[in-house]
Design goal:
Number of strands: 3
Helix content: 40-55%
Oligomer: single chain
Order of helices and strands: EHEHHEH
Radius of gyration: 14 Å
Strand order of the largest sheet: 1-3-2
Shape: globular
Length: 85
């Protein structure tokens, strides 16, 4: 995530089971101009037992939270409808 204004709050968007899963969503958000970052990304790669205990947190700016949720939910809805056919 690029440097942010000191007044902008970074919040947990979602917790994922794996760094791979978090990176997929991170790229989806980036393609929609929403910056994000994976908290402790290198720790979870080097110490896999760490992510099994706490999960992998994907962080976004608080101002982008609602839009990020809409994008991911819409993607999940379209994925579910295509697999139900």
């Amino acid at each position: 995530m690029e440097s942010v204004n000191n007044n902008e709050k970074v919040v947990v968007f979602r917790i994922y089971d794996s760094v791979f899963e978090a990176n997929v969503v991170k790229e989806l958000l980036a393609s929609n101009d929403i910056p994000s970052m994976i908290k402790n990304e290198h720790t979870t790669v080097l110490l896999p037992m760490f992510n099994s205990m706490s999960g992998v947190a994907l962080m976004v700016l608080e101002k982008d939270l609602a839009r990020a949720q809409e994008i991911v939910d819409a993607t999940n809805d379209s994925d579910n409808s295509s697999t139900e056919k």
